[in-house]
Design goal:
Blueprint lengths: L18 H13 L4 H15 L4
Length: 54
């Protein structure tokens, strides 16, 4: 599992997603016992790392 550095997150990012994407993120969050926002942050970090940006 990817480890996220804990600490204060100082910026907020609001995004719109369709119902299917929200259901998928919610399902993944529950499986990992995370909040939806923590799972979204994890998925964004994974995508950035895959592109060599993080």
């Amino acid at each position: 599992m990817l480890r996220i550095v804990s600490g204060k997150k100082e910026n907020t990012l609001g995004i719109r997603v369709d119902d299917e994407l929200l259901k998928t993120i919610d399902r993944l969050a529950k499986a990992d016992e995370r909040s939806v926002s923590a799972m979204a942050r994890l998925l964004i970090l994974e995508a950035l790392r895959a592109r060599g940006e993080a």
